[in-house]
Amino acid sequence: HPAKNLPPGPLSLPIIGNLKRVIVPEDVRKLRKRYGDIFRVKAGCVDMTYICNFNLMKEAFTKTECSDRPHWKNLHFLTDGRESGVILTNGEQWQNARRFLLRNLRDLGMGKSFLEAAIQEEAQMLVNDFRKYDGKAGHLPMSINIAILNVIWQLVASRRYELNDKEIQSFIALLKFLQEDVVSVFLPSFFPILNYLPRFLTRKLLKLDLVDDVKQNVFKFMGNIIESHKAKLDPDNPRDVIDEYLLEMNKKSNTAAFFSELDLTRTIFDLFGAGFDTTSNMLRWMCLYMAAYPDVQSNVQKEIDDAVPRDRLPSQQEKSQLQYLEAVIHEVLRMSSLIPFGVSHCVTQDIQLGGYVLPKGMILQGCSVISHEDPNYWQNPHKFNPNRFMDDSGKFVPQKEGFLPFGTGRRQCLGESLARMELFIFSAALLQNFTFSPPTSKVIDLSPRAFLLAQFPKFQDIVITIRK
Ligand code: HEM
């Protein structure tokens, strides 16, 4: 687009573009200093624009023209190129899936007692498990993962797993494969030249044998669960997302075309893909921040002790009394910027943004990490200070300007209320019962471990002590 006023950015070479590796927040900070709030880089052949300003992110992501995901066939490798699920779909398929999920997450309990009870049950399991580690230094226990998975399983299929269950271990391995080992499958979108290599070489480079294996396992695993739901389906008493979905499939509505078993499997994997690593790592960040800031931790504990008797776990009912905890959770969400550049969007029609033209096909990344450290919104942004979310009378004030850990606009996180409920109940239960601290003569490392497009905490030792 030589005639167009495109966002500025470094010069790029054909085929490789100008990125040496996956871009990390440090690169974005540097590029923003040099080129301003909107800049453009090229990853292979893909033109990407990074938006680093809160108002511009809000403006862009409320536009329909910026609400699609990239139209890359290989994003849908699980379903042989067919668009399905919710995170990566577009148009009517996406609208339908998003509407179905929002309605059902609401009906099945986001904000209702069903889900709260499920989370409470997992909180108890977490507390029981954490007790086993009293006084010993070690990594945060795996029970965090099981608790988060069980909440989604309850919602999706009315089932939960015990800590050492073999099936849940193989399911975790499957999710890990999908998230870490099969990313090579996306490479041809950035480097189309890979499509012209001999087939045996492409298969090897893109690990396509492994991909086929993973695909088979996903459908085998879900196939069994869907079949057992079909056998027990009661149209008057849908128990979970799978039941609701099967009922939609049987309806003769004009949206019926969007519901299929293939799509159901993909949708469920989307819920795990979006809701598992995110929420479990946020809970890890929470424990690590508490270990690093003992004064904040003891203030939270005091607040919990004042509001909740020690013989039972805190619950949603105490939310209005646990205002400082709420502020701490918000500050941890801000400081950790778990998904620093959101999830890719794609421009579907030329638009203007911040004085530049974003042409059709441009990929957009909204940089929450930059907004979360923008001094226009946050005083001393690099300081961990939960009080920034409190007013003078000790009440929590949810600052909205500059804060977007769950994204913004039409694609904003669909599981936000669920994630918030989990973070609240799990953090309250853990801090009521335990104190976190660094191992003797060590400090907690709060710098993130770069992991693809997320900022997860580094694996490290922490001491869990039972509160007397
Ligand atoms: C602390 C935990 C979480 C964080 C920080 C988080 C963050 C995000 C972000 C940044 C996006 C992208 C927004 C965009 O594209 O503009 C997103 C999308 C999404 N999230 Fe979450 N999320 C969390 C937990 C969850 C949970 C628990 C679920 C559901 C079980 C969930 C389901 C989704 C889905 C389905 C999408 C895609 C929405 C769409 O494309 O329409 N997330 N999330």
Automatic annotation (TrEMBL):
GO terms for molecular function: heme binding; iron ion binding; oxidoreductase activity, acting on paired donors, with incorporation or reduction of molecular oxygen, reduced flavin or flavoprotein as one donor, and incorporation of one atom of oxygen; steroid hydroxylase activity. Its cofactor is heme. Keywords: Heme, Iron, Metal-binding, Monooxygenase, Oxidoreductase, Signal. The keyword Isomerase does not apply. Pfam families: p450 (PF00067). One of its GO terms (cellular component) is cytoplasm. Heme binds at C413. The keyword Glycosyltransferase does not apply. It comes from the Eukaryota. One of its GO terms (biological process) is xenobiotic metabolic process. Belongs to the cytochrome P450 family. PANTHER family: CYTOCHROME P450 2U1, CYTOCHROME P450 508A4-RELATED. This is Cytochrome P450. It comes from Cherax quadricarinatus (Australian red claw crayfish).
